[in-house]
Amino acid sequence: MNKCFSIIVFMFLLSFYCSGQNMQIDKLNRFLQTRFDSCIVYQSYSNWIYPQQFFIIGKNKANVLYYTYKPPLDDTTSISINNKYLRIHKPKISNDYWQQLIISNIWTTEHYIKRELKIKKDSLITTYSIFDGGEHDFYFITKDQIRRLYFYAPEFYNEHAPDKKLQNALKAIKLFRNIFKD
Predict the structure, then answer these.
(1) Interatomic CA distance for residues 14 and 20, integer angstroms
(2) Residue 47 — φ and ψ, nearest 5°?
(3) What is the pLDDT of residue 18?
(4) Selected residue with higher pLDDT from 97 and 5
(5) pLDDT, tens digit, 9 for 90 and up, residues 44-63
(6) Residue 26 carries which DSSP code?
(7) Quick check: 84 pLDDT over 90?
(8) Which of 14, 20, 94, 140 has the greatest number of CB atoms lying within 10 Å of its CB?
(9) Using CB atoms within 10 A of its CB, is residue 167 exposed (0-12), middle (13-18) or buried (19+)?
(10) pLDDT tens digits for 126-179?
(11) What is the DSSP letter of 84?
(12) Measured on CA atoms in the order 160, 107, 90, 85, is the torsion positive or negative?
């Protein structure tokens, strides 16, 4: 009985954690939508990584600005530019990253989610699967819309079955990591 009660309490608390994460990105997206002409937001996570962090490239007319956002554990903090959660980032190398992300063809694809991949070679079927792979979200935010692209374990699946969609996503991931490396 005690074990069953513990599991119920754990599941109840987990539901608050999961819904809180969605509220954070919704709040961040609405904030960015009102302050920039357009933005690209990248987030990488897995069930092993916490706290989450968002990498943001915002554009107003010709100005391109870079930010990192680490949401607080509670959902009561308001978002403002250059507070302790949303910080300006200055890339070490000056480059037109915005243009590189726009022409990366990532926005011409849809979500890419696979939990299992079957490859037939010489009448032998090999199954590849992963259940704790990295998850990657991209948000393209304009004044009128917010578009989300989600990729599950793109490195793993591209290694076993190369795919142009995955390769474009991997290029964008690498670009974000280069921009925001310390």
Answers:
(1) 10
(2) -75, 0
(3) 41
(4) 97
(5) 988 776 657 899 999 888 88
(6) H
(7) no
(8) 140
(9) middle
(10) 777 777 788 899 999 999 989 888 888 888 888 877 888 888 889 999 999 988
(11) S
(12) negative
Report the amino acid identity of residue 117.
Answer: L
Mean pLDDT over each residue of the chain, to the nearest integer: 76
Distance CA 57, CA 140 (A): 10
User: Which residues, in sequence order, are bridge partners of residue 67?
Assistant: 56, 88
By CB neighbour count within 10 A (0-12 exposed, 13-18 middle, 19+ buried), where does 141 fall?
buried
| CA separation for the pair 89, 42 (Å, rounded) | 14
The letter for the amino acid at 72 is: P
Scan for tokens 């578009």, then name that residue. Answer: 147
Residues 89-94: contacts with CB under 8 Å, at least 24 apart? 89/55, 89/179, 89/180, 90/66, 91/66, 91/179, 91/180, 92/181, 93/178
Contact in structure between 29 and 45 (CB atoms under 8 Å): no
> What is the arrangement of strands in the sheet containing 86-89, beginning at the earlier edge strand?
86-89, 63-69, 54-60, 38-45, 135-142, 146-152
Q: Is the dihedral of CA 30, 36, 38, 40 positive or negative?
A: negative
Task: Residue 104: name the closest of 180, 174, 157 by CA.
Answer: 174
How would you classify the pairing of strands 63-69 and 54-60? antiparallel
The pTM for the full model equals 0.76
